[in-house]
Amino acid sequence: MTTRPRLVYERWTDQVAGDILAGADIELVKLDLRASAEQGWAALESAHGYQVATRTDVASIDDGAQWLAGPTLVDRCPQLLAVCSAGAGYDVIDVATCTRAGVAVCNNSGPGAEAVAEHALGLMLDLAKKITAADRALRSGPIGDRLVLRGTQLFGKTLGVVGLGAIGGRLVELCAPFGMDVLVFDPYVDDATARGRGAVRVGLSELVERSDFVQVTCPLTAETRGLFGRAEFAAMKPTVYFITTARGPVHDEEALYDALVSGSIAGAGLDVFHEEPPRHDNPLLRLDNVVATPHVAGITVEAARDIAVATASQWQTIFAGAIPPRLLNPEVWPRYCDRFEEILGVRPTARDTAAAE
């Protein structure tokens, strides 16, 4: 290359990513969200790659949204060739804007799937067995009639999974020992694929009507934003549990609150919110039939390291001039190749060099 690639990152999920990339011919520049905006833009405006900060991280600072990969950032970074999100979710990136600008968009789906799927199952078991409810009751004083804490079993129930990707697919596997009937709503999966994973593909309306547990594991996109509103919650069984490890805006929080308060649904397990971290006075956090965690489903020691290794490997692939393994906008490739050659001095190849080796 005639120009050394410059990669800006806010932080790694594990330092192993930095260790791996330190041995590559890549200039690493840390974006300090607490520093001045001028310093941040000084780092980014000459960047060739950007490991995008998480929405939760930028929410804690003034004007933090400017550090997401949206129109403002793309316009101010003319040498930017690729942007990557830390995990499977990529709502921190405006894919359409990047594609128009010739910028490749990648995520890191796969490495954190086990952690999120296990967390989703944990929320389901917690709600069904009333574990958190019993813990709260026990700590608040003497327990009277234990029957008020009577839970239910997963065995033989119907599980509805929204999004049969790496996380949803693994969740179906984890639930297999419970002998559950599994329904799946995913427009991008065919009937044969669903059957191969032990599920039946159905429409969303059928899924919400039949399920005892609704598990949302899909990404946030224009198609999924607001997917669950008043109509969907009203169609559910009064005994259903709604669980999401996706992104907050996939469901209407006000509609969910009303459904929980009115008894239209039995409870909810939430790892994601519209505002993250959620305010302590968020109405959902006041409900006894809600179990909540602060977007930590994918945060385990193992997942953090696996994601970091995958992140570093993908950046090595990108700057080696090969197709990244988790490219989300493949239609960008022709223009991306032209820009890559113009900026870095070599033309990418339509193959994975790491796999070829």
From TrEMBL:
UniProt domain D-isomer specific 2-hydroxyacid dehydrogenase NAD-binding: residue ranges: 121-297
GO MF term set: NAD binding; oxidoreductase activity, acting on the CH-OH group of donors, NAD or NADP as acceptor
Example GO BP: amino acid biosynthetic process
InterPro entries from the UniProt entry: D-2-hydroxyacid_DH, D-isomer_2_OHA_DH_cat_dom, D-isomer_DH_CS1, D-isomer_DH_NAD-bd, NAD(P)-bd_dom_sf
Pfam name, any one: 2-Hacid_dh_C
Domain of life: Bacteria
Keywords in alphabetical order: Amino-acid biosynthesis, NAD, Oxidoreductase
D-isomer specific 2-hydroxyacid dehydrogenase catalytic domain mapped to chain residues: 73-329
Keyword DNA damage: no
Keyword presence, NAD: yes
Family: Belongs to the D-isomer specific 2-hydroxyacid dehydrogenase family.
PANTHER family: D-ISOMER SPECIFIC 2-HYDROXYACID DEHYDROGENASE FAMILY PROTEIN (AFU_ORTHOLOGUE AFUA_6G10090) (PTHR42789:SF1)
UniProt name for this protein: 3-phosphoglycerate dehydrogenase
